[in-house]
Amino acid sequence: MTHTTSHQTARSARPSAARTDHITEELRRFDEHLRDVRGLAAGTREGRIRIAGRLLRQKFKGRAIDIARLRPDDIRRFLARQLDARRTHSNASQLAAALRSYFRYRSACGDRVGALTAVITAPVSWNLAFLPRALKPDEVERLLGSFTSRLRWPKRGYAIVRCALDMGLRCGEIAHLNLDDIDWRNGTVTLRGTKSLRQDILPLPVETGQALADYLRHERPATDHPAIFVRRMAGLDRPITSAAVGNVIKHACRRIGLPQYSAHALRHTLACRLVENGSSLKEVADVLRHRSLTTTRIYAKLDTPRLSRVPLPWPGSES
Q: Nearest-CA neighbor of 166 among 117, 204, 192, 199?
């Protein structure tokens, strides 16, 4: 009797597990779309997959996914619950972006989603309202000087920060660097599989090259793995993750009393330095590998000397 009951329980559990796997498979296909079609970075994709998964499990847990069953009120209720948990501008923006992204994907699959996307409203955000958060010159010096021998992997951390600070590399781009990507003779770095889905060749600054060489010679584990930044786990050599790169930079900022700064601030720091030295927005966009100049426009607000040449007429004046 016990054997029969256990067998029946196992049989009854299979359909539920199959439907759960069905949601996992749907999220996998969505992730492939975001990566291969939209060209989104791993961190961005992870956030959108997480939010889409919450919606699907809330509505389709225990049954097959059918987008036609979703109603505008379902989306409103989902958004209300998510915002009740965390009422912040960034959370609202992420929810709106993720749901719109998922429904664009479903539209490409042939679903009618116009009524669903119509109820997704993003919070008001004035375009270019804030200056980019960047480190000051003295903060940069303190950051670079924080990688002392007291740390476990100081040379690795220093090289990672130099890659972000000198070349504006994203966390994923640093994590995916291979030994063959560096041309030491010509002083260049090749980026493959970047956020813009293209191959870019960048000049290798002297300070960055020296930091990488120092790490490779004196701190990198002896391994045949092609990745530059390697970590050893359970006896296996694996490339460092983009999250680990971000944590290295974040912890370094905390050490010098800047807990609110993250890896992206180093890209902003490079861009601000270029603008202050007279580089055009097009040159900044090329260095940061922005796909659109619209993304780079925020740095125009930093070019005070040029902005002062285009003053607007004072209200009430004749000019």
A: 204
